[in-house]
Structures are given as C-alpha cells and as structure tokens.
Amino acid sequence: MNRLSETQDSIVHDQPGITRDRTYRYAYWQDREFSVVDTGGLVFDDDTEFLPLIREQVMVALAEATVAIFVVDGQTGLTGGDEAIAGWLREHSVPVLLAVNKCESPTAGLIQSMQFWELGLGNPFPLSSIHGSGTGELLDELIKYIPPADELEESEEIRVAIVGRPNVGKSSLLNAFLGENRAIVSPISGTTRDAIDTVVERNGKTYRLVDTAGIRRKKNVEYGAEFFGINRAFKAIRRANIVLLIIDAIDRVTEQDLKLANRILEEGRACVIVVNKWDTIEKDTYTILEYEREVKARLYFMDWAKTIFVSAITGQRVEKIIDLVDQAVAEHQRRVSTAVINEVIEEAVRWHSPPTTRQGKQGKIYYGTQVSSQPPTMVLFVNDPKRFNENYRRYMESQFRQQLGFLGTPIRLIWRGKPAREVERNTANRATKV
C-alpha cells in the first residue's frame, strides 16, 4: 500500500491484525490515476476478536474494486491460508493479480514465485514492497484494467450519481427530472436497492442519471440485499462525472452526510450539494442565507461545491440543477496550460514564501504542470516535499482556486521531489522550445 501510494500512512508491523478497516490512498502509474484500498488479513476458520469484521471489510472492498491484488509471502511459501483465499477469490468476478512479496533477490524471487502457480490465479509477480523491485511490472499489468483519462473524457454522456441517506428524496428527485415515476418512491427507507440508470436529454446534452440506494451508517447495515445495494452506490460514485449529494432540509447536515461527502472527495468526483424538501421549511428573508452558511460550515472541506435548495415534490428549482451540473463538469474536465500554472505559483510564492525548517532549509517550488483532469491534478516539483507543511499546501490550493476557479470540482496537488540538475535541464529544454 505504501509503495503504490508513495506514502507511509499504512502501519507496517510484524504482528497480525494491525490493519482492520479499509484504508484508501491515491496512486498513479503512467497516465492512469486510481485508488488503492488496503484491507486487513483474511482468516476464514477463526471467528475470534475482530476477524469476522475484517472479513466483512474485505468483502466491501472487493465489491467496490475494479481489480484485486492478492499479496502472498514469498519467503514463507505457499500456505493453506493462501489456498483458501485463492479459492474464495475465484468465486468472484473481479480480476485478480497475484503479487509475491518479500522477493528481494530477483533470481531467488523468481524461484520463490514459481510455487504460487498452483493457486490457479495466473502469473505470479515477484516483487519487494520495501525496495520497490518488481512493482513496475505489476503496475503495468494493473493499468490494463483502468481506462485512460482521455477515454473517460470522450464519453458523450454526462454521468450523474444521485446519493444520500435513506429517505432524503433521491428517487423523488429523479422522478421530478423525468416527469414520470421511473423509481419507486416510498416513505419506507431502503426502497431502492439497485443503482437505477436513466438517460435524459436537456439542451442537446445527454445525461445518465443514477439513482442509488440510501446509505446508512455501516453498523446498521446487515449483509445481504442492502449491503450489495450500498456497494453499487459506491461504484456509481466512482463511475460518475458528477455526484448530487442530497441533504434533507429537515434533518440538516448529519454525520452520515459528512461521511458521504468525504467519500465523494476521496473519489475525486465533481459535486453539487442539493438540499431537498425545501418546501417543508418555514421561511423568512434570511432563512436560505442561514441554511447556506450552516451547510458551508459543516461541509467546509467541500466549500468548492455549489449548493441549491429544491423541492422534488413541487419541482421548485429542480431544472436549475442541470445548469450547476454543466458548470461543475466543465471545471472537472478543464485543463490549464503549464505557463498559466507557473504564473499562479510565482504569484503565490511572491506573497507567501515557502516555510523554512528549524535547520534553516527552505522549501523551493521549481515548477508545476497539470498531469490529468477529472479531477484536475497538478504536480508541483520541489526540492523536498517534507519542507512543505499542511498549512502551506492548503495555501497553495486556495491560490489555485482564487486564480483559476475550479468551482464544483476538487483539485489535487501532488508534491514531488526533483534533483536540482534535472530541474535545470528541464527548464533549459522549455526555454529552447519557447
């Protein structure tokens, strides 16, 4: 996990059972960007302590996954536990890549990996997570299952996922868009189990609206239809261009709404916050302003998302949601030239210099460039990423937003160290091209 995401966020320890919940990190290889989900160790024949909960978390991760990496220990060799997991994985439709870890020696690693052919999961990839050897070959195979960003951008349809807690009016909102009862509407929470796709045209554009199951708190969800419905909702978020986060005006912003917003942010999706059931609220001149302030305060980490107050029952402002969707999707797909990005960096550094460490070493930003869209992702090449604290990173993100906009979409800044000689060479090459 740490090797693929180039972080040290996952705890590494010889004691089994350290990892319990699912941990999400961003990673990229060549022109592909994706999320890596770290899970706990699987044990099927033991129900003590946290092991049943860990199995549940692994099932959730696998239900969401495009491809799975099954990690085995090359030094320990093939075990009964490996065979049990391999048999379980073959029962699922998710493609599996077999990573044989702890193969520090290329020659010995090849020999160590040969025994894992017995698992019937295809070619074993010998690698060393600590040293990084062999991970490139694994990633080359991995990205075959992940479409390039350009392919996603070429899709003519705008994919809109409608998500929220149970009974906030997601299906009613879908029906209000269509002018027909496409989805079942009921006061009983949990009516929608499947992710329902509906295609609608507005102003010459095609939108695929996906009504999803209401997402309850994890501890309240039993394994079964609701479990799989929620996982289809998470998949809908991942494959969407934009997500409509539906909030109940009566309940206001709840803890579960915050978790859903975090999920949208983790997946890098554009978003519009839709406060539904606005017709049920007693209002005066200042009501909408007070509500908007409260929503922004609670969802402060998504202050880039537009908020709209609607009523799916009366149709109030429902059609205006499409305008906000178009604006957010355009920003989500937008690319900015390297020259403009470096102008923003120079201006930001002029107003606020990078921090200096206690040893007197100052951070330096050499240059930046946008490497992908959906969401807009910029790489900043610096002398040492560790010299830039969280405050300065947030400052740089705010400068990009102030100068370039990006309303309705998250943006990502990747801080990468770069040797001074390489920077000088690249700068000279750019000057020659100009």
UniProtKB/TrEMBL annotation:
Residue ranges occupied by any EngA-type G domain in the UniProt entry = 158-333
The answer on whether this UniProt entry bears the keyword GTP-binding reads yes
Please provide the record's keywords in A-Z order.
Answer: GTP-binding, Nucleotide-binding, Repeat, Ribosome biogenesis
| Any single GO BP term | ribosome biogenesis
Task: Please verify whether the record's keywords include Transport.
Answer: no
A Gene Ontology molecular function term of the record: GTP binding
- What are the binding positions for GTP 1 in this chain? D38, T39, G40, G41, L42, N101, K102, C103, E104
SUPFAM superfamilies named in the record: P-loop containing nucleoside triphosphate hydrolases
Concerning HAMAP family, the annotation shows: GTPase_Der (MF_00195)
Task: Relate the protein's function as given in its record.
Answer: GTPase that plays an essential role in the late steps of ribosome biogenesis.
> What is the similarity comment for this entry?
Belongs to the TRAFAC class TrmE-Era-EngA-EngB-Septin-like GTPase superfamily. EngA (Der) GTPase family.
Q: How does it assemble?
A: Associates with the 50S ribosomal subunit.
* Entry protein name: GTPase Der
Species source reads Lyngbya aestuarii BL J
Give the gene that encodes this protein.
Answer: engA
